[in-house]
Specification:
seven-stranded mixed sheet, four-stranded antiparallel sheet, mainly beta
Length: 114
């Protein structure tokens, strides 16, 4: 059973930064790709960023230049560095992994408010 455990969410002021972490229970190289999705109240869950097994990355247009996805293969952890946060970034952020099967973390709340 694969487990993805997120951490790092919280409350931050507009323009602030947060770093989310997603620790996997097995080698992240065993997944085709890993990434972060978010779901705002009343909206669908949308892709924010992802990183492939080979290390290539992609981002949603709304976060390009502000968010960075990275990984630590020794710690089996994927990160999402979020800078210049805006009120529209408020959502529950979910870690995702895919290896023929979709795996999801439990989600972590990000709130941007002054």
């Amino acid at each position: 059973q694969v487990q993805l455990v997120e951490s790092g969410g919280g409350l931050v002021q507009p323009g602030g930064s947060l770093r989310l972490s997603c620790a996997a229970s097995r080698s992240i190289f065993s997944f085709n790709r890993m990434g972060w999705y978010r779901q705002a109240p009343g909206k669908e869950r949308d892709l924010v960023a992802r990183i492939s097994n080979g290390g290539s990355t992609m981002y949603a247009d709304s976060v390009k230049g502000r968010f960075t996805i990275s990984r630590d293969t020794e710690k089996n952890t994927v990160y999402l560095q979020m800078n210049s946060l805006k009120p529209e970034d408020v959502a529950i952020y979910y870690c995702h992994a895919y290896s023929g099967i979709d795996y999801w973390g439990q989600g972590t709340q990000v709130t941007v408010s002054s």
